């Protein structure tokens, strides 16, 4: 195992914000800002190696130790329950997991049969409906979930809502909120022991940055 800290970043705007915080914490890697198609960047002086990965894959890299740490959404952590440490709420990428339905939908009209639920987040949906004692028929989809109730494939969807624009543009609305979601710093359990010092230095700085940001917003 290399001495460098291996970090899986979620590709996209969230990952860029996360990198800016890591840079501020002393884990800079200037080459990452060169806008090319490269996916791995390292800076031996700062002892760091970054990888850009699909946001939903970060937890896999970290769970299996290919990355020591990474940043993943709470939605992914709840859905797949990877065996990792959750070190910090980054207070970024905030959104909600919600049940959404066509405007005017009322579950009282569908009570006599299982509710048809389309979602990418099967476990979260199953757990939620079990908690309220509602029978469901799950339809697993991989994207464009919003279309399902419009075409009659499902009654409702369980999905992430951020601004609400996608729902609005498809004549859907939030029916029930399930959970607040945000990005979390996660660590591989075994590697955490070996690289504790660097990880602690990073988490302390991140916590400080989060506190400062919260004070400024207040
Ligand atoms: C998510 C989610 C919604 C959308 C909500 O999709 O599945 O479609 O964002 O955002 P909004 O409330 O701001 O409109 P994402 O962009 O992550 O892509 P996906 O289709 O792969 O799920």
Keywords:
six-stranded mixed beta sheet; elongated; five-stranded mixed beta sheet; alpha/beta; about 30% strand; single chain; about 220 residues; about 35% helix; binds 1-O-pyrophosphono-5-O-phosphono-alpha-D-ribofuranose
Describe this structure in words.
The mean pLDDT is 95. The longest helix is centred in the C-terminal third of the chain and has 22 residues, at 196-217. The strands form two sheets. The protein has a six-stranded mixed beta sheet. Strands 8-7-9-6-10 form a five-stranded mixed beta sheet. The protein is elongated and about 65 Å long. With 218 residues, it is of the alpha/beta class. The chain contains eight helices and eleven strands. The structure holds 1-O-pyrophosphono-5-O-phosphono-alpha-D-ribofuranose.
Q: SSE string, helix = H, strand = E?
A: EHEEHEHEEEHEHEHEEHH
Mean pLDDT, nearest integer?
95
- Contiguous low-pLDDT stretches (5 residues minimum) are none
Major sheet strand order: 2-3-1-4-11-5
Ions and ligands: 1-O-pyrophosphono-5-O-phosphono-alpha-D-ribofuranose
What's the gist of this structure?
The chain is α/β, with parallel strands linked by helices. Helices cover 33% and strands 31% of the residues. It has helices spanning 13-24, 58-63, 74-80, 122-131, 147-150, 165-169, 189-194, 196-217; strands at 5-10, 40-43, 48-53, 69-73, 84-89, 95-102, 115-119, 136-140, 156-161, 172-181, 183-188.
Question: How is the secondary structure organized here?
Answer:
Blueprint: E1 5-10, H1 13-24, E2 40-43, E3 48-53, H2 58-63, E4 69-73, H3 74-80, E5 84-89, E6 95-102, E7 115-119, H4 122-131, E8 136-140, H5 147-150, E9 156-161, H6 165-169, E10 172-181, E11 183-188, H7 189-194, H8 196-217
Parallel strand pairs: 1-3, 1-4, 7-8, 7-9
Antiparallel strand pairs: 2-3, 4-11, 5-11, 6-9, 6-10
The structure holds 1-O-pyrophosphono-5-O-phosphono-alpha-D-ribofuranose.
1-O-pyrophosphono-5-O-phosphono-alpha-D-ribofuranose binds at residues 143, 145, 159-166.
